[in-house]
Write a sequence for this structure.
C-alpha cells in the first residue's frame, strides 16, 4: 500500500466554491444526472476483458484476433510482437489493442511507424474501422500538437523530427513491418530503442528470417534482458536459427512476447481457393515467331532472350517495344537478324491470351475481376482490347500516387468490371470485394503470386476465391507452370513458408535462380531436370520447416 | 448507467432546449439551436461569418440512428463507440461539473432546507491493467451525516434550480472545503482497507523486468547507461501502481429532511 502513488483532485472544490460565490452558472438536474450516468457507462469496471468490443459493434472480429488482443494486453502487458501470417489481420489486432488502451484511458499519445506506401491506408483503417482519430504527419503541425500520428520511420528519424520525437513520452508505439528493424547495428534500430514508450507493438509476418539474433533484437526492443544480453545469447545460440526449435526454454520465452496465428490454426480457410490452369495455344503465326526468336542466338545474351520470350508470351507490344529499344541502341549489333522478327511481330494478329481473357471474362459474367500482368505494355494493350469488347477496366500500378491508387480502387469498386494491375501494384491494396483473379502471366517467384492472391484472399473475403493462371503451351510458360507451380504444389503447402525456406537454402532471389536455370540449360530436357531438382530441394526444406513451425504455436 | 441510448439522446437535446422533430423506430431527428450547433457541429467559421454579417445563422438538424436495423438513407448511426456519442459525452463531462439545486416542496409554511455537499468521484486503479470505481457521496453540511449512493437517493426527489416558495436555506456549519476533505478522508480510508493484490502483482512484474534490464546491460559502457535509465523510466511508467481520484461532478443540494 505504501508503494502506491495516490493523486487527488484538488481543483474541484475550489472551482465549486467560486461558482457558489458568483451564483453560477450551474447545471440543471437533468444534465448533471446525465453526466454522472454517462460516466458510469464509460468506466472500466474490471481489470480484465476487452471493452473495445462494445465500442465497435460494426466490426466482425475473428476469434483469433480477439484472443490475440487479449493476450497482448493481459499476458504481455502491452508489449508484444504480432506475427500472424499474411492476411490474418495484424492491423485489426493492433487497432483493437490500441482502441482498448484508449478507452481505458491508458494511451493518449501514440506514434505509428509504417512503410511510407502504407501511411494513408493505416490512417484510413484506424479512422473508419476503429474511430481512432489518427492523422498522417504533415510538415505544418508539430509532433507534440497532435496525439495520434502515422508516419514512416524514415521521416521520423530525420532531423529535426528525430529530436522532437525523442523528447515526447509516448504511451504507445506501433511499428509495422518490424522485421526491417531486426538488425541492431542500424540507425533505425537505435532510433526505435531510443523512443520513450510505455506500450509497444511490433508487427511482422516474418519474425525470424535468417538468424536467431534477429528475434533477440526484436525482443530486446520490447523487453530488454528477456532473452539475456547480447553476448550470452550469441554464446548460447550462436547464429543458427534452428536452435530455437531444439531449445524448449527459448521457445517458451519467445512465446511470452510473441503471438503468431497461422492460417491452419485459425481455420480462416473457410473461404476456399479454386485454382485453375488455363492452357492457351498460340496461333501458328505466333508459334512461328516465337520459335524463330528462340532460335536466334546471335546478337544478345540468352539472358535477355529469355526476357524477350517471356514478353512475347505476354503481348506483342511488350516484346515489340523491348526489341525495338534493343536494336535502336547503337552499341548493339545484329539489327539485321532481328529486324525481320520485329516486322513479323508487328504483323501478328491479336494475342491468343488476350482473346482467351475476353472469353473468360464473358464466361464469368457479372463479377469483379482483377487481372495481373508483369508488363506495362501488356497492361495498356489489355485495357484497349477489353474496351473493344465492351468490358470496362481501370489500370493500377505501383508507381501511382497514393491518391490515384485510392481513386482507381474506388472506380473499380463502383464502376469498372476489371482492374488490370502490374506486379508493383500488388502490395498495399486490399480488394476483398472482388473474388476473381486472372494471372495473365505468372511471376517466376511463387512468393509474388502468393502476394497477388493475398490481395483478395484475406481477412474480410466472404466468398470462395477463383484464380485462373494462364500459360501458353510449348513455351517457357509451360515449364514454369508445370515444373514450378504444379510440381511443388506450391499453392497448398509451401507458399506460407517460402521466405523461411529460401533463407534456409541461401537462395536470395528465386526468380534469378529460375532464370539462370533457363539460361544455362541447352535443352528442354535439361531445364526440366534442373527445375525438378529445385522443386525437390524446396520440398525437402519445407518438411523441415513444417516441423519447425510449432515453435511459435500458442 | 445509460441503458437506452435513444431516450438518453432525446433527454440530452431536450435539456439543451432543442426541438425534437421526430423520434420513431430508433431514429431521432433534432433541430439544433445555435448553442448546440456551436458545441457539436464544428463550424466556428460559419458562425463567425454570420455574426460578422449581423445575421442569425441557421443551426443544423441532426438525425441520429440508434436502431442498427433501421432502413433510412439519411442520418448517422450512433452507438457507444461512435465519434458523435463520444463528442456528446465529452460535452457533458466538461460542462456539467457543478450544480446547486433545491428540493421542490409544495408548502404554505416556512420550511428549512439543509445543505448537502454531493461529490461524485471516480477512483482509478492503474497498474499493469486498469479499472475504475465510482462513488457518489453526500455530506450534510449541518450535522455531518454522510451517505453513499447519494445519486440513487436524489433520483427519487424532485429538484429544481430555484428555491420553492416558503422555503429557506440553512447556512452550512461545515464549509464545503472542509466537507470535501471529510469525504476524501473517508475514501482514503476505504482505499487503505482494500487488499491491493493488483498493485502487488504490478510491483512484482516491475521488479522482475528491472532485474532483466540490469542483466541486459551487464558489462555495458557508461554511454549506454543513459539508454538503460530511459528504459527504467519506461518500466516505472508502465508498472508503478497508482490510484487516481477524479471528481466527475458535484455541488450543493438543499434538501428537506
Amino acid at each position: 500500500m505504501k508503494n502506491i502513488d495516490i493523486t487527488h483532485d484538488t481543483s474541484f472544490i475550489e472551482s465549486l466554491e467560486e461558482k457558489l460565490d458568483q451564483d453560477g452558472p450551474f447545471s440543471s438536474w437533468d444534465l448533471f444526472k446525465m453526466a454522472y450516468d454517462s460516466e458510469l457507462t464509460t468506466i472500466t469496471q474490471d481489470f480484465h476483458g476487452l471493452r473495445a468490443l462494445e465500442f465497435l459493434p460494426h466490426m466482425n472480429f475473428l476469434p483469433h484476433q480477439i484472443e490475440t488482443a487479449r493476450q497482448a494486453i493481459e499476458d504481455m502487458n502491452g508489449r508484444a510482437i504480432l506475427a500472424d501470417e499474411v492476411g490474418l489481420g495484424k492491423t485489426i489486432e493492433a487497432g483493437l489493442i490500441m482502441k482498448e488502451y484508449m478507452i481505458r484511458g491508458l494511451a493518449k499519445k501514440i506514434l505509428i511507424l509504417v512503410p511510407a506506401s502504407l501511411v494513408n491506408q493505416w490512417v484510413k483503417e484506424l479512422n473508419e474501422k476503429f474511430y481512432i482519430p489518427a492523422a498522417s504527419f504533415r510538415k505544418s503541425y508539430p509532433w507534440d500538437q497532435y496525439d495520434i500520428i502515422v508516419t514512416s520511420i524514415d521521416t521520423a528519424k530525420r532531423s529535426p523530427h528525430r529530436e522532437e520525437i525523442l523528447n515526447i513520452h509516448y504511451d504507445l508505439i506501433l511499428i509495422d513491418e518490424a522485421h526491417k528493424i531486426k538488425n541492431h547495428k542500424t540507425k533505425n534500430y537505435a532510433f526505435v530503442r531510443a523512443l520513450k514508450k510505455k506500450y509497444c507493438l511490433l508487427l511482422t509476418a516474418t519474425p525470424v528470417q535468417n538468424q536467431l539474433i534477429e528475434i533477440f533484437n526484436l525482443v530486446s526492443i520490447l523487453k530488454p534482458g528477456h532473452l539475456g544480453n547480447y553476448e550470452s545469447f550469441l554464446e548460447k545460440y550462436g547464429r543458427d536459427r534452428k536452435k530455437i526449435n531444439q531449445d524448449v526454454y527459448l521457445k517458451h520465452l519467445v512465446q511470452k512476447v510473441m503471438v503468431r496465428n497461422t492460417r491452419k490454426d485459425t481455420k480462416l480457410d473457410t473461404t476456399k481457393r479454386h485454382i485453375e490452369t488455363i492452357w492457351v495455344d498460340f496461333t501458328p503465326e505466333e508459334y512461328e515467331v516465337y520459335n524463330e526468336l528462340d532460335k536466334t542466338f546471335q546478337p544478345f545474351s540468352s539472358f535477355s532472350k529469355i526476357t524477350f520470350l517471356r514478353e512475347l508470351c505476354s503481348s506483342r507490344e511488350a516484346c515489340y517495344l523491348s526489341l525495338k529499344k534493343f536494336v535502336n541502341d547503337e552499341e548493339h549489333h545484329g539489327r539485321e537478324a532481328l529486324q525481320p522478327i520485329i516486322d513479323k511481330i508487328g504483323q501478328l494478329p491479336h494475342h491468343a491470351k488476350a482473346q482467351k481473357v475476353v472469353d473468360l471474362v464473358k464466361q464469368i459474367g457479372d463479377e469483379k475481376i482483377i487481372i495481373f500482368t508483369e508488363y506495362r505494355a501488356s497492361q495498356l494493350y489489355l485495357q484497349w482490347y477489353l474496351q473493344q469488347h465492351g468490358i470496362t477496366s481501370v489500370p493500377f500500378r505501383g508507381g501511382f500516387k497514393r491518391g490515384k491508387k485510392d481513386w482507381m480502387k474506388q472506380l473499380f469498386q463502383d464502376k469498372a468490371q476489371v482492374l488490370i494491375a502490374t506486379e508493383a501494384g500488388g502490395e498495399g491494396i486490399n480488394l476483398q470485394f472482388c473474388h476473381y483473379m486472372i494471372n495473365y502471366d505468372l511471376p517466376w517467384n511463387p512468393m509474388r503470386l502468393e502476394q497477388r492472391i493475398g490481395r483478395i484472399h484475406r481477412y474480410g473475403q466472404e466468398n470462395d476465391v477463383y484464380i485462373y493462371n494462364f500459360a501458353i503451351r510449348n513455351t517457357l510458360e509451360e515449364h514454369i507452370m508445370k515444373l514450378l507451380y504444379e510440381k511443388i504444389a506450391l499453392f497448398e503447402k509451401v507458399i506460407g513458408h517460402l521466405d523461411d525456406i529460401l533463407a534456409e537454402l541461401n537462395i536470395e532471389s528465386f526468380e534469378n535462380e529460375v532464370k539462370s536455370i533457363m539460361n544455362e540449360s541447352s535443352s528442354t530436357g535439361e531445364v526440366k531436370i534442373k527445375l525438378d531438382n529445385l522443386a525437390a530441394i524446396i520440398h525437402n526444406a519445407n518438411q523441415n520447416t513444417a516441423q519447425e513451425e510449432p515453435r511459435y504455436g500458442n | 448507467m445509460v441503458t437506452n441510448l435513444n431516450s438518453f439522446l432525446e433527454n440530452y437535446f431536450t435539456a439543451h432546449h432543442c426541438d425534437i422533430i421526430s423520434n420513431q423506430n430508433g431514429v431521432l431527428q433534432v433541430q439544433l439551436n445555435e448553442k448546440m450547433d456551436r458545441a457539436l457541429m464544428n463550424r466556428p467559421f460559419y458562425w463567425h461569418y454570420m455574426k460578422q454579417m449581423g445575421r442569425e445563422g441557421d443551426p443544423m438538424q441532426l438525425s441520429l440512428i440508434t436502431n442498427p436495423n433501421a432502413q433510412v438513407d439519411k442520418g448517422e448511426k450512433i452507438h457507444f463507440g461512435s465519434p458523435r456519442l463520444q463528442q456528446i459525452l465529452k460535452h457533458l463531462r466538461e460542462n456539467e461539473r457543478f450544480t446547486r439545486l433545491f428540493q421542490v416542496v409544495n408548502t404554505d409554511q416556512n420550511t428549512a432546507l439543509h445543505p448537502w455537499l454531493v461529490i461524485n468521484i471516480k477512483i482509478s486503479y492503474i497498474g499493469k491493467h486498469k479499472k475504475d470505481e465510482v462513488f457518489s457521496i453526500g455530506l450534510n453540511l449541518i450535522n455531518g451525516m454522510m451517505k453513499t449512493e447519494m445519486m440513487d437517493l436524489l433520483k427519487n426527489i424532485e429538484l429544481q434550480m430555484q428555491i420553492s416558495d416558503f422555503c429557506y436555506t440553512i447556512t452550512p456549519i461545515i464549509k464545503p472545503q472542509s466537507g470535501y476533505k471529510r469525504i476524501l478522508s473517508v475514501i482514503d480510508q476505504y482505499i487503505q482497507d482494500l487488499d491491493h493484490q493488483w498493485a502487488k502483482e504490478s510491483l512484482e512484474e516491475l521488479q522482475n523486468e528491472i532485474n532483466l534490464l540490469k542483466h541486459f546491460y551487464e558489462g555495458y559502457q557508461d554511454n549506454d547507461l543513459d539508454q538503460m535509465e530511459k528504459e527504467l523510466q519506461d518500466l516505472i511508467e508502465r508498472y508503478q501502481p497508482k490510484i487516481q481520484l477524479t471528481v466527475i461532478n458535484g455541488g450543493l443540494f438543499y434538501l428537506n429532511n
